[in-house]
Write a structure and sequence with these properties.
Two copies of one chain form a homodimer. Chain A has about 180 residues and is an all-alpha fold. The first copy, chain A, has two domains: about 50 residues, Arc Repressor Mutant, subunit A, CATH 1.10.10; about 120 residues, Tetracycline Repressor, domain 2 (Orthogonal Bundle), CATH 1.10.357. Helix content of chain A is about 75%, strand content about 0%. The first copy, chain A, is built from nine helices and no strands. The longest helix of chain A has 23 residues. The first copy, chain A, is elongated and about 55 Å long. The relative contact order of chain A is 0.10. Chains A and B meet through α8 and α9 of A and α8 and α9 of B. The structure holds a DNA duplex (30 and 30 nucleotides).
Chain lengths: ~180, ~180
Amino acid sequence: MDRRQRKTREAIFSAFSTLMKNQRYESITVQDIIDKADIGRSTFYSHFETKDTLLKAMCSDIFEHIIEGSVCDYPEKSVTLEARLTHILWHFENKKSDIRAILSSQSHDIFLGYLRDYLYTLFEMHLDDFHTKVPQSFLIHHLIGTFCEAVNWWIKESPAASPEQIATYYMSVIETH
Amino acid sequence: MDRRQRKTREAIFSAFSTLMKNQRYESITVQDIIDKADIGRSTFYSHFETKDTLLKAMCSDIFEHIIEGSVCDYPEKSVTLEARLTHILWHFENKKSDIRAILSSQSHDIFLGYLRDYLYTLFEMHLDDFHTKVPQSFLIHHLIGTFCEAVNWWIKESPAASPEQIATYYMSVIETH
DNA sequence: TAATAAACGAACACGATGTTCGGTAACATA
DNA sequence: TATGTTACCGAACATCGTGTTCGTTTATTA
């Protein structure tokens, strides 16, 4: 279809992302986005129903790539957990600026919600690696929560660290003997 | 001062808490609170500047008790981490209904923000208990994040569990040898 | 019972949202 | 190059929630 559509969509994404670097998601108005992207009001609404929809679209965008990549690059079940996580973290590295914008906004919940869903299926495959006395549901929540925490720490406290480094930290902290 | 003030404040808290059990924080309007609490519009605004202020006040309320209790009951530094955490969890048990309302709302961040601040100083006292290769800052984030996750799991997935049980699960999952 | 302080609630100004619609510019096709 | 289609433009509008104002009523205190 129309090249214009993609261009406009990109302009909106880009404006939104820029704005998020300087202010909280909540305080950004549709007008701000329109001005920054230099598009008409009705154009924005013809692309996205609401500001939330835009944020969701951005999150989906990020995760689409990760999931596609995951399927293409590591289809076998024998791949280690650490390898899979490193792989995810590499994708984050590439989209770091967008992710940082989302995570540092007040509503990183939406992004983390997506991440959690995705991680759920992933960790289910590797549950046999762990032997603990806690309920399985507690364990999964723990593993996912800790990974999200690690990503948060990475982005906010030590952005220069490599994906491998973060994966190593993560593994060493969840290891139970 | 005036008994009426406290009564009104209580009515607002109670109405807010009730509303939060049924809908997301974001979707609750000041009008909803006013109607539920059966008070005048200007009365609400004479108590709280905004809806956010109200939420913060509620969080502070919960943590005041915990911190006061902590100072009175466990002043010595020799108390174990598990004992301290259990103590916190017991306070949560008492305020469970309010906490659940906040945690299940879209903006549990504010509550968790308070909790994190409080936990930070607590964990600093017990850092020597842990020996890992990860940076200290990563470790603290990990310990705090995992505790928040445990509280979340407790409230949402297994509300009948005892505070001691949760503390045990937590300890067994963060133990590194 | 008089003075003080709080609650009331209607009315208002303001700002953001999301829609509508007539007009313009870009694209695809023949 | 002409023609039909489709996206973008942007001013205008209705709607809704916010937070304030202020004169009135009701409760508390001394």
